[in-house]
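Many introductory courses stop at the sequence. We go one step further.
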Amino acid sequence: MPSKMSLFNKELLLQISRSTGWISIVYFIGLLFLLPIRILLTYSDEEYMRVMQKPENLFHFNFEFQIGLTVIIPVILAVFLFRFLHVKQATDLIHSLPLKRDKIFYHYLLAGMVFLIIPIVLITLILHVMNAVFDLHLIYSVSDIYYWAGTTLVILLLLYAAAVWIATLTGISAVQAVLAYIFLLFPAGFMLLLFYNLKILLFGFPSEYFLSKQIERLSPITFAARLNEKQFHWSDAGIFMGLSVILYGLALLFYRKRNLETASEAIAFPKLRCVFKYGAAFCTMLLGGSYFNQVSNSSFGWTLFGYVLGGAAGYFLAEMVLQKSWRVFTRVKGLLVFLAIIALLAIGTQTLGIYENRIPDQEEIMNVEFTDSPSNYFMGDSWESTYAKPAPLKNSKTVLNIIKLHEQILKDKHINQSKKPTDGNFFFKYKLKNGHSVIREYRVNMKLYEDLYQPIYESREYKLANNQLFKVDESNIKTINILPHGPSGKSVSLKDPNDIKEAIALLKQDILEETYEEHHYYQYRGSNFELNLGTDRFISIEMSPNYRKIMEWLKQKNLADQALVTADDISSILVTKGDYADKDYDLVKKEVEESGNVLKITDKDQIQEALNQAGTGNDQEYTAVFCYNSGQYYDVWSFDEAHVPDFIKEHFK
């Protein structure tokens, strides 16, 4: 009779269950407390049930602990399961069994997958029963159960696949755990370091723009950490499952080629040891340069020191891991070659300046997105981004003015890179006719570029493209709330559709007529013009004191006193000559009082005139502290010679 070979070896499966099955039990117990028991506690609180809103999904319950288990359990499981590869006696024993290598691998791999799946299945069944018995539809639905189970399972299997692959690369369990997390976080962490350092090395590199492009999606761990904020889509599941299959395939391939004698070696494959060593040196070099650049206020010397120190630290730490000894400091040849290559690349990049000096010709440009508020790009795919992101500019005159501004910024490279004060940002995104884009961002001293920026800012096209008010459909506005600056507690609410339409039309006219000088002088001084779009969506527009049409309309409606800070809200004003913009804000009032030449204004007519004329620009001739009636709250504003009231000017003659 021919012998029959079983697909699974019962003894091996029993041994695997005895040694690592406890991890599955611990995971099940953890989930039991985090979800079913937690939900029952919520259900038993009648007062809370009366006021609670249905959570978006089951990740709402003990989210931090759920994600903690999701991230930790699969890696620990892989470490314990594949420990037989890292202990010589266990390696010899397992591979002496009358089983092929592939079959041994499948036993361990599939056993681990089952250990992860069983707790999810059991919790899913328990949640089903609870939902049917206790009628918990106000807390979660059946679709919520499957969304939670599917999402958790896909992430678990990907993390497990990564940890299994790393197990085949190393011969030490502790190194497997560390490398698994490094590998899982590497895409997001490396891009973060790389973009930050490119910003250091390349003038105009828009690191924040690229980092805002959902970089957390590059790592399953950082992706999982935002599951309470973002939905997990079918496309995400497909990508994660595809990556899992690839990693399982790589794990099998490396397991087949792995020498059994490499147990206890940090890296099992000699050819990968150089990759590990120089990869570690490169990453720690980027980390060291980033750190010292940040803490030294972008000092070139300290940044260079950070690169050298970080590279050396990473190189020697990797050598210690590979050699399993701390006596590695004589192995400096490789480090010197590495640092020399990096230095040549950096010098070549700086010398050639191909990236930094690239400004497209006007004939190449289809359109350009330009703004002095790059943060408007950092909102991801949120609803706010629809209104905040600037629209493309196409007018040839506007595009030419933008190119001239860009060219001047490049000419002033050394000025802008110095430690002189910078108070503004410019963001350029050229869309070229060939489909490519040229994107740059600069931190600059705005005073140097006022003459070039002014015609751009005052153009109708720029204001329509950058101001959120022009992107709002008036029919979507439910109410308008006008909130004055300061602690007055006053407000105005416009609910009548006709009032809303009139107010929006007048505000648009004021914005279009505003000059650059008025914008710069009065910015951050006005009331908050808040548009309520419903479903907790609000857009705030600044209503500056120089917006004459809307101010006149508010007066005609007898709403100005409630919509604006008036003399009745101010107890006194302290005025002194000189600019205090660089002083500590909390100490300005005291310093003004002690300056020796202070004008104290209490007359209401004079206070109102000062309120109408005060601005917020830096380097102004007069500093004014506006003290409110309520408590110790005050605002520090200023006057220039063109706006200072005559009675203040007369006093300081």
